[in-house]
Amino acid sequence: MKLNKIHHVAIICSDYRVSKEFYVEKLGLKVIREVYRKERDSYKLDLEIGDSQIELFSFPNAPKRPSYPEAQGLRHLAFEVDNIEETVEELNQKGIGTEPIRIDECTGRKFTFFEDPDKLPLELYSRV
After folding, report:
1. CA-CA distances (angstroms) from residue 16 to 3, 75, 86, 107, 128?
2. Domains in the chain, please, with CATH?
């Protein structure tokens, strides 16, 4: 068996409008397609990030995330960036708070965390 790459990551949000604005307007992800599924009262928004995708879902009455970030399951989603300082500054200018930039002990690369509107932990990780 050979797994080629991660095709997509699925995120369930609590407020579709707010999360769509965050991922599209603030993070700058490109919309591939948006579908409203009437039978589920649910939106599905496919977003392009490099050669992968994020699927943003809305479901009525979805349970909240149990804790930050050490709940079992997906811990966080990491985005690779060329210049972490510039990216942090841009996020901060858009009203998105970030943790202090740290250095990964294993790779020597810079990284930091921020949150989406539902407090999902998101990471910025320096390419070099």
Report:
1. 31, 21, 28, 36, 34
2. 1-61 (3.10.180.10), 70-128 (3.10.180.10)
